[in-house]
Amino acid sequence: EDKVVQSPLSLVVHEGDTVTLNCSYEVTNFRSLLWYKQEKKAPTFLFMLTSSGIEKKSGRLSSILDKKELFSILNITATQTGDSAIYLCAVESSASGTYKYIFGTGTRLKVLA
Amino acid sequence: NAGVTQTPKFQVLKTGQSMTLQCAQDMNHNSMYWYRQDPGMGLRLIYYSASEGTTDKGEVPNGYNVSRLNKREFSLRLESAAPSQTSVYFCASSEGAVSSYEQYFGPGTRLTVT
After folding, report:
1. Are the beta carbons of B56 and A100 separated by less than 8 Å?
2. For residue A41, what pLDDT is reported?
3. Residue-wise pLDDT tens for chain A (113 aa)?
4. CB A8 within 8 A of CB A105
5. I want to staple B29 with a disulfide (CB 3.0 to 4.6 A). Which of A2, B22, B93, B99 is the partner?
6. In B, which residues are within 8 Å of A42 by CB distance?
7. What does residue A28 show for φ and ψ, rounded to 5 degrees?
8. From the candidates B47, B103, B104, which should be mutated to test the interface with A, based on the most A CB atoms within 10 A?
9. Does any CB of chain A come closer than 8 Å to the CB of residue B61?
10. Is the pLDDT reported for residue B99 higher than 80?
11. Are B88 and B110 in contact (CB under 8 A)?
């Protein structure tokens, strides 16, 4: 059965701290791994990773994928209160010519001023 | 571009009532999805449509039906609502098929079944 596991489930840090969020997966026919940020409403896209070892960066956020060990990490440096959100990891898998996404339960990050 | 739109935003139903959640996208995407999100459970796939004219069950399809009316629209129907279907429902779309693309999400529908 396909599954995506995120850790930790929740995290409380102070502004300026660096955090690392983890996502491990077991899926058939892996296509890509995606990170989303969810504040009050709909998830918004952060990164898509398809190749091992290539870091994606956007400002203070970065992410990398390890397809051998089946995990990804999302790093946030110099955290700000605006980073408080649920961070979701999703893995896209394919079967019989169709593609679907399996989501983890998310990591709830709270950044204190 | 409105992106992905969902109606209604909020709905309260009594047990046994039926209703249809509407979703439309204006990005010419091939694939569309319905998820439910419950506390501590992440997003769980109910049904998806890889392309116009096809639909497939996801992880939690029981109690739901879907219709891919055309390329733009993908509706989710609850025939006989149950309290266990109280949740936030998200519709999403992606270009789909040939290469990997991110999903774009609608604003969600908060459904309460009493």
Report:
1. yes
2. 83
3. 889 999 999 999 999 999 999 999 998 889 899 999 999 889 999 999 998 888 999 999 999 999 999 999 999 999 999 999 999 999 988 776 667 788 999 999 999 99
4. no
5. B93
6. 90, 105-108
7. -85, 140
8. B103
9. no
10. no
11. yes
Contact A43 B54 (CB under 8 A): no
Single-letter amino acid code for the residue at A109: L
Amino acid at B18: S
Q: Give the gap in angstroms from C-alpha A18 to the nearest C-alpha of chain B.
A: 24
Report the residue count for chain A. 113
B42: pLDDT confidence band, cut at 50, 70 and 90?
Answer: confident
Nearby residues of A36 by Cβ (< 8 Å), 6 or more positions away = A43, A44, A45, A46, A87, A88, A89, A90
Q: Does A42 sit within 8 Å of B103, measured CB to CB? A: no
For residue B86, the distance in angstroms to the closest alpha carbon of chain A comes to 17
